[in-house]
Amino acid sequence: MRNLILILLAVLTITTVKAEDFPSIIINDGKSFVLDLKDWTKDAVQISILDPYGRTVYEENKEAGTSKLKKYNMDQLASGMYAVKVEDEIKEVTYNIYVNNQNVSIVGGKKVTYKPVVYYDNEGIISVNVLALNKNVSVNLSDSKGYNLYSDEVSKNVRYGKQLDISKLPSGYYDVTVGLGDQFYNTTIQK
Predict the structure, then answer these.
(1) Is the domain 117-190 a CATH 3.40.1190.20 member?
(2) If I label 128, which of 2, 18, 118, 181 is the partner at 20 to 30 A Cα–Cα?
(3) What digits encode the pLDDT tens for the residues 31-74?
(4) How many CB atoms lie within 10 A of CB 127?
């Protein structure tokens, strides 16, 4: 019976860890914290720390397979609100942290933003997929001269999916701009 309870406890712990697939921040004593990437992504990630004015004060790229834990020392930073941003190709997680003279604290919870996925299949089809989560979505396709070839706007859908056929257009570079709420993402396609 005791072994069964231990096995159940281990399974529940593993399930709980897998359910939370986002990075987390662990506050240390003093002006430092540890970023735990867990198994958030199998891809490379970009980690940025932004000052109260939105300027990048620290940035690094971590390749897949590297250490999932990293300690960040905030001793040299002035007091104020900072944003810790972790992003891969399809999502971004932001934590707001407050730095004062003695320590660091998390303000609020994490903000998760899903990015649009734009894929070109080399046969003339551009697929645009967006997890909109009730935000406004706009999609624009333009050529290298800036001429608008396609536009679409959708209000407050849960998701957006569209395939654009550019097979009859001449070879060249095309820009797909996706607006998601107040954020814009640009992808350049070479046909």
Answers:
(1) no
(2) 18
(3) 999 998 876 666 788 999 999 999 999 999 988 667 788 899 99
(4) 13
